[in-house]
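I'm curious: can you give me some protein's one-letter sequence along with its backbone structure tokens because I've never seen that pairing?
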Amino acid sequence: MADAETSPVTAAALRAIEAAGGGAALAKRIGVTRFAVQQWKDTGIPAGRVGKVSAATGIPLHELRPDLFPRAAEVAA
């Protein structure tokens, strides 16, 4: 799982890959290469792919990319 040096964004990518049943499974579900998904372990999920990853895994946008999609309560504050 995530260690002390893993950012929230890359930890979320790892969680999404696991939830999908692995990198190859996630890649197939959202129409990208397995290599692209593997890169997300270091970079996080690209903004343009977050919606499809969320739909494929059931993980909310704000959990996959909290830097781009804050929770509603955080926005209201």
Notes: The domain at 8-76 is CATH 1.10.260.40 (434 Repressor (Amino-terminal Domain)).
